[in-house]
């Protein structure tokens, strides 16, 4: 059930949504970072949700500014720890 809901959310996701989400957590992302995060969310959401996305995480670490990556990674780890499959 959760997977279906996430899929529907991701299908409607926009770069602007990503910027708003980051702003809610007081993370200042630029347009390029929003685009990168958008593409990763659209293309790899299943891997982030249910897989072992270490390779993708490593790629993001290289593409995002260090402070942005660290804040987002902390949020991701917290959310991932709450997911029950």
List the SSEs and their pairings.
Layout: H1 2-12, H2 15-24, H3 31-50, H4 54-63, H5 66-82
Helix pairs in contact: 1-3, 2-3, 4-5
Rg: 12 Å
User: What series of H and E elements makes up the topology?
Assistant: HHHHH
Number of domains: 1
Q: Can you count the beta strands?
A: 0
Write up what this structure looks like.
This protein has helices at residues 2-12, 15-24, 31-50, 54-63, 66-82. It is mostly helical and 85 residues long. The termini are close together. It is globular, with a radius of gyration of 12 Å. The protein has one domain (2-82).
Index terms:
85 residues, mainly alpha, 0% strand, globular
What is the structure about, briefly put?
The chain is an all-alpha fold and 85 residues long. It has helices spanning 2-12, 15-24, 31-50, 54-63, 66-82. The N and C termini lie close together (10 Å).
């Amino acid at each position: 059930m959760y997977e279906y809901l996430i899929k529907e959310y991701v299908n409607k996701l926009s770069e602007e949504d990503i910027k708003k989400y980051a702003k809610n957590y007081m993370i200042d992302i630029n347009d390029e970072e929003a685009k990168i995060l958008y593409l990763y969310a659209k293309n790899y959401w299943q891997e982030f949700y249910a897989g072992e996305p270490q390779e993708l995480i490593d790629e993001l670490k290289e593409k995002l500014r260090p402070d942005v990556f660290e804040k987002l990674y902390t949020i991701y780890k917290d959310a991932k720890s709450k997911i029950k499959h």
